[in-house]
Design brief:
The structure holds 2 protein chains of 2 kinds. In chain A, 82% of the residues lie in helices and 0% in strands. Chain A is an all-alpha fold. Chain A has one domain: MetI-like fold (Orthogonal Bundle). Chain A is globular and about 75 Å long. Chain B has 2 domains: 194 residues, Rossmann fold; 73 residues, no CATH class. A 6-stranded mixed β-sheet of chain B has the order 6-7-8-3-9-10, with helices on both faces. In chain B, helix 2 packs across helix 3 and helix 2 packs parallel to helix 4. Chain B is globular and about 50 Å long. Classes of the chains: A mainly alpha, B alpha/beta.
Chain lengths: 266, 275
């Protein structure tokens, strides 16, 4: 009897149901309070769902999300291509780390959005500036985690490789990189997250295309709704879309890592 | 029954000392004036109380540590770095967690010089044979975290012997095991080493343990060390006949030798225990 109960408690729909309970309750309260005390402009869940329907049907929202996703992937790949090899080198070689660490740590506290003026001046208000900002934002969590992973290789494993006669390059390839992979994975997840955060901020200024449409990306779309038409429902649709896309991206990355590193995660 | 006294020295430690610097104080002397020849095909076991420098001696032989003074040589060539001619089995298993049992056993053959000139097919065969030999058939695709302590130890042993090093250096390889598994692996270790074969066909083993009965059961000779500083106190011949097995453990000679070696390190072991 207890066994059956325990099994039931573990079903996914039951867990998901419990997780949805609070959000649904909040939505209901929001709807009721908004209807009772709000003005015409107060966004209500029902109106937001309606707005979402319109924006999806017109293709504007999917287009904006795809535009932003493309920029995020571009910047993310650019950051990973530089940060991972560099981080491995810094983690493996004390000399390289001593030289590069002060540079990295000086730039790290400078928010991605703070380089926006330079990015616009040098790269214009198009995709390349947005990509550069994403790359800048994703670079730091990637490099910091890669360095940590490469530095924390169990020294006994390095000794084991040495006693089997492996040279330096073979050791990096077969011991340092696999040992650092779980940390790099964490860096990829955080980097993807901050990249996605940065794109929304960057597109508020970059990718300007007055009059709306989806080709300016999700951030620009929000800016247009804010500055030109004051459509709160649509702005909230954009916010929710940003959050959901981030969730899906993270789940995909995590699934890929579980596949790639069956030894590292339960 | 051990290798004859005239067998050539495979390994030679000559006046080896190892000191480690201590910040703001005199150096710690781990090992001092250590001289010993290990003969070709010999199973040499080093015993001694904790902190006597057993592991330091092994690391110097492996080339992982260099002696502060004195020399260490294999076949009269000075040892200055690790090499595939000397395989090491580490106390903490040191299996690669991202490799399966198969990947771990294949590791040295695939990425190191031990596999030079070995066709992929021959390599696969050797890995297959080695995994069967240590009794891990059926667990090839498991990762180390999915194995019991005894199975990890077998995997580490398989990785060591798959590389076919001339010298096997083993640092308390059975220390983490329960008593039954330990006895089983002692028997298997002797079989894999080749106690049924003539001494000329055996590999050279240097094996560290703090278990005296284990030392007597395995060894041709037992090197007894004392601590602070680590020195070689004496070398005890173990003239028990081979092949050895459960019957050996029941022999009065076995008990006598164990008692004798215990008497050599007893005082110090007590001192170390209360210190």
């Amino acid at each position: 009897m207890t066994a059956t109960l325990a099994l039931r408690d573990d079903t996914w729909w039951r867990q998901a149901g419990i997780g949805l309970l609070l959000p649904i309750a909040l939505l209901i309260v929001w709807q009721l309070v908004g209807t009772a005390f709000g003005t015409v402009r107060t966004p209500l869940p029902t109106n937001i769902v309606k707005a979402a329907g319109v924006m999806i049907a017109s293709g504007d929202l999917p287009e904006a999300l795809l535009q932003s996703l493309g920029r995020v992937f571009g910047g993310f790949l650019l950051a990973a291509t530089i940060a991972i090899p560099l981080g491995l080198l810094m983690g493996y070689s004390r000399a390289v780390e001593r030289n590069l660490d002060p540079v990295v740590e000086t730039f790290r506290p400078i928010a991605a959005i703070a380089i926006l003026p330079l990015a616009i001046l040098w790269l214009g208000t198009g995709t390349s500036a947005a990509v550069a900002i994403v790359a800048y934002a994703a670079f730091f969590p990637l490099i910091v985690n890669t360095v940590a992973g490469a530095k924390n290789v169990n020294p006994t494993l390095l000794r084991a490789a040495a006693t089997m006669g492996l040279d330096r390059m073979a050791t990096i390839r077969t011991v340092v990189i696999p040992a650092a992979l779980p940390s790099i994975g964490v860096g990829l997840r955080i980097g993807m997250g901050v990249g996605w955060t940065a794109i929304v901020a960057a597109e508020l200024a970059v990718g300007a295309k007055a009059g709306g449409g989806g080709s300016g990306g999700i951030g620009q779309m929000m800016f247009v709704f804010y500055a030109y038409s004051i459509e709160l429902n649509r702005i909230i649709v954009c916010m929710v879309a940003v959050g959901l896309v981030a969730l899906v991206l993270d789940r995909i990355l995590r699934a890929m890592m579980r596949k790639l590193m069956p030894w590292a995660l339960p | 029954m051990g290798p004859s006294v005239t067998a050539p020295a495979k390994l030679r430690l000559d006046g080896v000392a190892k000191r480690f610097p201590v910040a703001g104080g005199p150096d710690t002397v781990a090992v001092e004036a250590f001289s010993l020849d290990v003969r070709q095909g010999e199973f040499l076991v080093i015993v001694g109380p904790s902190g006597c420098g057993k592991t330091t001696v092994l690391n110097v032989l492996a080339g992982l540590d260099s002696p502060t003074s004195g020399t260490v040589a294999i076949d009269d060539r000075l040892i200055t770095a690790p090499g595939p001619d000397r395989g090491v089995m580490f106390q903490e298993y040191a299996l690669f967690p991202w490799q399966t049992v198969w990947g771990n056993v294949e590791f040295g053959l695939r990425y190191g010089p031990a596999g030079d000139g070995l066709e992929p097919e021959a390599r696969t065969q050797r890995v297959r044979r080695t995994i069967d030999l240590v009794g891990l058939a059926g667990s090839e695709n498991k990762y180390p975290h999915q194995l019991s302590g005894g199975m990890r130890q077998r995997a580490a042993l398989a990785r060591l012997i798959a590389n076919e090093p001339e010298v096997l250096l083993m640092d308390e390889p059975l220390a983490a095991l329960d008593a039954q598994t330990r006895i089983i692996l002692q028997d298997e270790l002797l079989r894999i080493w080749g106690q049924d074969r003539p001494p000329a066909d055996r590999r050279t083993v240097v094996f560290i343990t703090h278990a005296i009965d284990e030392a007597v059961f395995l060894a041709d000779r037992v090197a007894v060390m004392t601590a602070h500083p680590g020195r070689l106190k004496t070398v005890v011949d173990i003239p028990l006949s081979r092949p050895r097995g459960d019957a050996t453990r029941a022999l009065p000679e076995f008990q006598a030798l164990t008692q004798h070696i215990w008497s050599l390190i007893r005082d110090e072991a007590y001192r170390a225990a209360v210190a």
